[in-house]
Automatic annotation (TrEMBL), chain A:
GO terms for molecular function: dipeptide transmembrane transporter activity. Residues 103-309 form the ABC transmembrane type-1 domain. It is found in: Cell membrane. It comes from the Bacteria. It comes from Streptomyces hainanensis. One of its GO terms (cellular component) is plasma membrane. InterPro entries: BPD_transp_1_N (IPR045621), MetI-like (IPR000515), MetI-like_sf (IPR035906). Belongs to the binding-protein-dependent transport system permease family. This is ABC transporter permease. It is a multi-pass membrane protein. Keywords: Cell membrane, Membrane, Transmembrane, Transmembrane helix, Transport.
From TrEMBL, chain B:
Keywords: Cell membrane, Membrane, Transmembrane, Transmembrane helix, Transport. This is ABC transporter permease. InterPro entries: BP-dependent_transpt_permease, MetI-like, MetI-like_sf. Belongs to the binding-protein-dependent transport system permease family. The chain crosses the membrane at residues 30-54, 95-119, 126-147, 153-172, 204-225, 257-280. Residues 91-280 form the ABC transmembrane type-1 domain. One of its GO terms (biological process) is transmembrane transport. The lineage of its organism: Bacteria, Bacillati, Actinomycetota, Actinomycetes, Kitasatosporales. Signal peptide: none annotated. It comes from Streptomyces hainanensis.
From TrEMBL, chain C:
It holds the Pfam family SBP_bac_5. It comes from Streptomyces hainanensis. Transmembrane segments: none annotated. One of its GO terms (molecular function) is peptide transmembrane transporter activity. This is ABC transporter substrate-binding protein. The keyword Signal applies.
């Protein structure tokens, strides 16, 4: 019974995921403490030199960095298990509250970016594949290449300064509007950042689509369908795209996972209060609890998204389901 | 972020080496890529030989923010430094950091993948676990934290990038090694009593060569982008050394009065990445039999 | 983008609400429109790169935190726009003849945001807590001379000193010396500030914004603005964009280039000379630098104007040690006011040393000009045959080394102080708490600083600090370079604001918005 349970693929995946998260926890804990400076010097700057030893030890106790490292680690981990992500001494809020505010922002940003990427990438990929090596293909490939090659920060800063100084369009200069408070402003504020991110992701999606379409079209069943007189358009959409879906879903899942922690630069340039910026700020401020727990949350989201992708993959692809 | 995309491995069966280069040169994108990368690398190499028109870090305040001219091809920046020389030096350090980072990642990652796939058991579990941990860690934040730990210099930055990309090489190589292990001639070699290491390096490694090569070309362009992003965030090679990302960061405030300070490094980084991507495409086409002739369909 | 904690900006300022003209103007502009439900007078948005790292005034050293908190809290004395000490919560004060008792008479009818009245018990509580090491207040050492604090009645507070300290009134004019209600704790105040200042805390969204509203019960003339929002826009060039699109009406920049790009159309930019100073700190206890001739050689080998021109585009002024307007050192009064390589060679010959090598730490990211300054100094010293090895450090690593005094030389931007004793007493007296970092002291200096503290007369004080300044320069304790500007960018609708040499936003209380 126990044997079958531990060998069940889902149980094994879950165990592996937990082990990974534990590894991330250890890693981030050690890494943070290896960065020079602590919370006291981060907060006081050179003024920390004026602290007397007594003041310094009071501050260490205040920030909770007077305990032995092993103790700090396990008390953090123990708190995590009870759902307590810790307390940010900088913003005087629990990390949970901060994360509940910033995670949805990045989540929304990532969703929009993926949506934009799909809207650009799939049609472009199909267009390219419809006539390989034609000017049409070259144009499509060129757009894809641009998406792969233009750094997000370059595109972001250029868009922001050009639009703001020449057209006075700068929704990101206004206070950030949460989605459910002011959806119109919120979407305006996320438009440029998600365009920048989406453009970058469109490239791999375009390429995946193109390759998949070319590959599927060469398969026997498509030839058979064509021989049976299935219309070209229907063929394209039903069969070809249907089969290209598997690699695209994989790609989307991967990209979504990375966006959760990888939108930092764009969040920073457009003042989007997302989770990446939360970590960046935390690293600068040596806000240990904040960085540790947030990185763990991102890692957990990443692992979860991967699991879901895997699941979606099984649902879509009959071959995997059978196996 | 595009610069940190880590795509799934593309399985490429081994082909013979002969004709590969010719195949790359036959694909138009490969040629364009080769030319772009070649030109930029040569310009970058100039910075290591002292053959640049100006010292890339020498300041000349009276001549600040000059527009491009015969004397200063790409103009000068806010400290009167020659933008052309700085861009060349920036490309040089970008190429250097990326090549070192990818080399480190390739060696460590491929070895990890080989060992994990071939020996299985505890080694596999350990390496796989470490890989998973590194994968789950947000890549840019990982590089950022790593780059903050040590004294800042170009090598630290290269190591930080290598740590981010090494796991990809583990993933990409482990799978094929697993299947190679079961192939008849490897089994045969085992039964004839050849040492395991000798089998690993004589029979297994050569067969994953093309997979590794394709991954190297992909990683190079990502490494260039990651290095640029890090220095844009102020965590790349420390100033005054020229770096494309930090040049773009500094130029943001100048873009209206001196657009060349933004355009020159911006175009350089885009061309470098475009070149690496095209070269990678050409190489992939050349190495991947599925694509051979497939394009003509 | 990088968070810039300004160093030692804490020991700074407060300012009187009595700048009559702009006050009246501000008062007029909203007098007709105050019948709405919200406070009238307009809502000002200030763009900042980072939000406060603490809301507890006794521990606030970060620039952004000081700027917010000085508008919420009050201190016994305050600073005017020319850095002179003016009354704050204390209407007046007097020093006993022996200089050992300082009596403060508190203002009547001052209330905290929570409605409770300010009395002498709050002052005693505050000053005693600041002095108590367990509080870890950053201004504790400013009260070193204070032996006890007593409250003879509700409106009077007496400070009994162990030795005279003429700089005390100026030192009390700091947000780190804020008077808190004796009922409050650090824990509570970090969530809900409770001060006596011209604005009260309204709302905060962590790392996004912090909003203050006008304090209708303020003891001075009520502020002209209905509210002030400090909006966090991490990227400086994005703040410029926000100014240009009108989403933000005000911002303060350090970088002249950023300021330059901000100036366009509706946005004006004004430079204000700062008290903080750029210097090459030398550690006279280490290696070759222990020899005064080596330090003097360094001093003579550097053209300060050239450092200023190359590193900071000439945006600033060459300075001596003391930067506060009332006590300013004459930058010409030093050995080699102009660069003199022959003199430098002579000093080096006197020292009998060749191959002088100095290791200097340089911070990256703390402020914009550091690395460029370091490079220029390096190039100039090379011409004099002195090798300066630069160690460029991440700001955390730099601060660690600085705090430990672990350097031969440090390229630094240090905070200034309106009072010269507050500025250098802690560095250059042998028992000063930063003497290990300063790396230099002498019996003459100890004596001069003690004298400076015991003398009240401004003329006499000026003379003493002139001598201190001369002593520091003649011994090349450090190499003082230049002061720079801060740049206040405002849209044309912002009226009545005065920037201060310490970067303080005290004058938000006299500011108004026209529509």
């Amino acid at each position: 019974m126990l044997r079958t349970l531990t060998h069940h693929p889902v149980a094994r995946r879950a165990a592996a995921a937990l082990a990974t998260l534990f590894g991330v926890a250890v890693f981030v804990f050690v890494l943070l403490r290896a960065i020079p400076g602590d919370q006291i010097t981060a907060a006081l700057g050179t003024e920390a030199a004026a602290l007397t030893p007594a003041q310094r030890s009071d501050l260490e106790a205040y920030y909770g960095i007077d305990q032995p490292l092993v103790l700090q680690f396990f008390s953090w981990l123990g708190n995590l298990l009870t759902g307590n992500l810790g307390y940010s001494t900088r913003s005087h809020e629990s990390v949970l509250e901060l994360t509940l505010r910033s995670l949805p922002v990045t989540f929304e940003l990532a969703l929009l970016a993926i949506l934009i990427a799909l809207l650009i990438g799939i049609p472009l990929g199909m267009l390219s594949a419809s006539r390989p090596d034609s000017p049409r293909d070259a144009a499509g490939q060129l757009v894809g290449l641009a998406g792969l090659s233009i750094p997000a920060f370059l595109l972001a800063t250029t868009l922001l300064s050009v639009l703001a100084s020449n057209f006075g369009f700068n929704p990101n200069g206004q206070a950030f509007a949460p989605l459910f408070e002011d959806p119109v402003l919120n979407l305006q504020q996320l438009l440029l950042p998600s365009l920048v991110l989406g453009f970058g992701i469109a490239a791999p999606i375009m390429r995946t689509t193109r390759t998949a379409v070319l590959e599927v079209r060469s398969n026997d069943f498509v030839r058979t369908a064509r021989a049976k007189g299935v219309g070209a358009r229907r063929l394209q959409v039903r069969h070809v795209l249907g089969n290209a879906l598997v690699p695209i879903v994989t790609m989307v899942g991967l990209q979504f996972g990375y966006l959760l922690g990888g939108a930092v630069v764009v969040e920073q340039v457009f003042s989007v209060p997302g989770i990446g910026r939360q970590v960046l700020l935390g690293i600068q401020q040596k806000d240990y609890a904040l960085v540790q727990s947030t990185v763990l949350v991102i890692a957990a989201a990443f692992v979860l998204v991967n699991l879901l992708t895997d699941l979606a993959y099984r649902l879509i692809d009959p071959r995997v389901r059978a196996a | 972020m595009t610069d940190l995309t880590r795509t799934a491995p593309i399985a490429v069966p081994a082909t013979r080496r002969a004709g590969r280069l010719r195949a790359v040169l036959r694909s138009p994108s490969g040629v364009v890529g080769l030319v772009l990368v070649g030109l930029l690398t040569v310009a970058g190499l100039l910075s290591f030989t002292g053959l640049l028109p100006y010292d890339p870090v020498a300041q000349d305040p009276p001549n600040r923010l000059l527009s491009p001219s015969g004397e200063h091809l790409f103009g000068t920046d806010q400290f009167g430094r020659d933008v052309f020389s700085r861009v060349a030096a920036g490309v040089g350090s970008s190429v250097l950091i990326s090549v070192v980072a990818v080399t480190l990642a390739t060696v460590v990652g491929t070895l990890g993948g080989l060992v994990a796939g071939f020996f299985r058991g505890f080694t596999d579990t350990a390496i796989g676990g470490l890989t998973n941990v590194l994968f789950a860690f947000p890549p840019l934040l990982l590089a950022l934290a790593l780059a903050s730990v040590f004294d800042r210099n170009w090598f630290t930055v290269a190591v930080a990038i290598a740590v981010v990309y090494a796991p990809i090489f583990v993933r990409v190589t482990r799978g094929p090694v697993l299947s190679l292990r079961e192939i008849e001639y490897v089994k045969a070699a085992t039964s004839t009593g050849q040492g395991r290491l000798s089998i690993l390096f004589r029979h297994v490694l050569p067969n994953i060569g093309s997979i590794v090569i394709v991954q190297v070309t992909l990683s190079l362009s990502w490494a260039v982008l990651t290095e640029a992003s890090l220095s844009f965030l102020g965590l790349g090679t420390p100033p005054p050394a020229a770096s494309l990302g930090s040049m773009i960061f500094d130029a943001r405030t100048l873009v209206e009065i001196a657009p060349w300070t933004m355009i020159a490094p911006g175009v350089a980084v885009v061309l470098l990445v475009v070149g690496l991507n095209l070269l990678g495409d050409g190489l992939r086409d050349a190495l991947d039999p599925r694509n051979r002739g497939g394009r003509a369909r | 983008m990088s968070h810039r904690t300004r160093i030692a900006r804490s020991a700074l300022a407060t300012l009187s609400g009595a700048t009559a003209l702009s006050l009246v103007l501000a008062g007029c502009s909203d007098s007709g429109s105050s019948d709405g439900d919200g406070p009238a007078g307009g809502d000002l948005v200030i763009g900042v790169t980072s939000d406060p790292d603490t809301l507890f005034p006794w521990k606030a050293t970060q620039f952004q935190a000081v700027n917010v908190l000085e508008n919420i809290y009050g201190s016994l004395t305050e600073l005017d726009s020319d850095m002179t000490v003016v009354p704050g919560l204390a209407e007046e004060w007097e020093t006993s003849d022996d200089g050992l008792t300082l009596t403060f008479f508190l203002r009547d009818g001052v209330t905290f945001q929570d409605g409770s009245a300010l009395d002498s018990a709050d002052v005693v509580f505050s000053l005693e807590s600041i002095k108590d090491e367990a509080t870890a207040a950053v201004a504790a050492s400013s009260l070193a001379a204070v032996e006890s604090v007593e409250a003879p009645d509700e409106h009077t507070v007496e400070l009994h000193l162990a030795s005279p300290d003429a700089s005390l009134p100026a030192n009390l004019a700091s947000v780190n010396m804020s008077i808190l209600s004796s009922d409050d704790t650090e824990e509570e105040l970090n969530g809900q500030p409770n001060g006596t200042g011209p604005f009260t805390f309204d709302d905060r969204v962590s790392s996004q914004s912090i909003t203050l509203v006008r304090n209708e019960e303020f003891w001075g003339y009520p502020a002209g603005l209905g509210s002030v929002e400090f909006r966090v826009i991490p990227d400086e060039s994005a703040i410029v964009s926000a100014l240009q699109s009108g989403n933000v009406q005000m911002a303060v920049f350090d970088d002249p280039l950023v300021a330059q790009t901000a100036e366009s159309g509706d946005v004006t930019v004004d430079p204000t000379a700062q008290l903080s100073y750029h210097a090459l700190m030398l550690n006279a206890t280490r290696g070759d630098l222990a020899d005064v001739n080596v330090r003097l050689a360094v001093q003579c080998a550097i053209d300060r104007q050239q450092v200023l021109d190359t590193a900071a585009l000439g945006e600033g002024e060459v300075t001596g040690p003391i930067t506060s307007p009332a006590y300013r050192s004459d930058p010409q009064a030093r050995p080699c006011p102009e660069r003199d390589l022959d003199q430098a060679a002579e000093y080096l010959a006197d020292s009998g040393r060749s191959d002088v090598t100095i290791d200097a730490i340089v911070s990256q990211g703390e402020y914009a000009t550091s690395v460029n300054e370091a490079q220029n100094i390096q190039a100039q010293l090379a011409e004099a045959g002195i090798t300066l090895e630069l160690e460029v450090l991440e700001s955390g690593a730099y601060v660690d080394r600085w705090v430990a005094g672990d350097f031969d030389a440090a390229v630094a931007l240090n905070g200034g102080n309106p009072d010269p004793n507050g500025m250098y007493g802690r560095y250059f007296t042998s028992d000063g708490n930063l003497n290990a970092v300063a790396g230099y002291s002498s019996p003459e200096l100890d004596e001069l600083f003690a004298e400076g503290r015991s003398v009240e007369d401004p003329e006499e004080r000026r003379e003493i600090y002139r001598q201190i300044s001369a002593h520091l320069e003649e011994n090349a304790a450090w190499i003082w370079m230049f002061t720079s500007y801060s740049y206040t960018a405002m849209t044309s609708s912002v009226q009545g604001f005065t920037a201060m040499p310490n970067g303080s936003l005290r004058f938000l209380r006299t500011t108004a918005l026209t529509s």
